[in-house]
Design goal:
The structure is a single chain. The N and C termini lie close together (12 Å). This protein has 101 residues and is an alpha+beta fold. The strands form 2 sheets. A two-stranded parallel ribbon has the order 1-2. Strands 3-4 form a two-stranded antiparallel ribbon. It has a single domain, classed as Macrophage Migration Inhibitory Factor (2-Layer Sandwich), CATH 3.30.429.10. The protein contains 1 helix and 4 strands, in the order E-H-E-E-E.
């Protein structure tokens, strides 16, 4: 919310847990190795994306105890027209917030 100026009620998360046998991680990252993948509409500035990544590293360390060395974050942006949400094309949605931050 802080980095992307989302409204407080904007929350959507999906967690995919893998068994130890199915999750291969680099030896130098440790057993806490965590991948955070973010899919979002295109339009955020580089500064906003940097702030989001910085905020995630900080919060994951202070609130969850994950060493930043064990965390990998990727952001994938696609045009709104490439999304279908609530029966509408993403380009036609009224979001209630701006993606141009």
């Amino acid at each position: 919310m802080a980095a992307l100026a989302y409204p407080p009620d904007k929350r959507f998360h999906r967690f995919v847990a893998l068994s130890d046998d199915d999750f291969v991680y680099p030896a130098d990252r440790g057993e806490d190795y965590t991948i955070v993948e973010i899919s979002m509409f295109a339009g955020r500035s580089d500064a906003a994306k940097r702030a989001l990544i910085r905020e995630l590293f900080t919060r994951l360390q202070t609130e969850v105890g994950l060493d930043p060395q064990s965390v990998e974050i990727t952001i994938t942006e696609t045009p709104r027209v490439n999304w279908g949400i609530r029966g509408l094309n993403g380009a036609d949605l009224e979001l209630g917030y701006s993606v141009d931050v």
